[in-house]
Design brief:
Layout lengths: L5 E5 L6 E5 L4 E5 L2 H7 L4 E6 L4 E5 L4 E5 L4 E6 L5 E6 L6 E4 L14 E2 L17 E2 L5 E2 L11
Parallel strand pairs: 3-10
Antiparallel strand pairs: 1-2, 2-5, 3-4, 4-9, 6-7, 7-8, 8-9, 11-12
Length: 151
């Protein structure tokens, strides 16, 4: 199966539509608390592309940017609330896009877990991908404590 050279995506209601040119810069599962709250999920699967590889096809007037931290912003559709893009002034060479917003496959599978130390304790992961954590989200994650048997 050949990898597409570009993939289209959109928000839930379809007001905001975009295309990304591949190759991507990476694909990760993020477990930070900002992603958890923003998406209402245990983690978010993001993939990154250079800003020049992202083309907004329609809905610029419906795209709202929110400063989610002192160095990051998230863009979402004002009509349906779909989270679409995450930009970080510490990494201006990339824009992160939720993989679930895409209408087809990208050029790679998720490669690792970021900010795993703050993962939702109510979910279990069965994959063998590397799990990173710490303050930066890129350090070795703390070993998980296993509950004692019988408790």
């Amino acid at each position: 199966m050949s990898t597409p050279k570009s993939v289209s995506g959109s928000c839930l209601c379809g007001a905001v539509r975009f295309t990304t040119t591949l190759p991507s810069l990476g694909c990760v599962h993020c477990h930070c608390t900002i992603c958890q709250r923003n998406h209402g999920a245990a983690f978010v699967t993001w993939f990154a592309v250079p800003p020049s590889a992202l083309k907004l096809e329609s809905g610029a007037e419906d795209l709202v940017r929110y400063a989610s931290s002192e160095h990051g912003s998230r863009s979402f559709c004002r009509r349906c609330g779909s989270s679409l893009f995450c930009e970080n002034s510490e990494h201006p060479e990339r824009v992160d896009i939720p993989l679930a917003a895409m209408s087809g496959p990208i050029d790679r599978a998720p490669q690792l877990h970021l900010f795993y130390d703050s993962h939702a304790r109510w979910t279990e992961l069965a994959d063998t991908l590397p799990r990173l954590g710490g303050v930066t989200g890129l350090e070795p994650a703390k070993p998980e404590e296993k509950p004692e048997k019988g408790r």
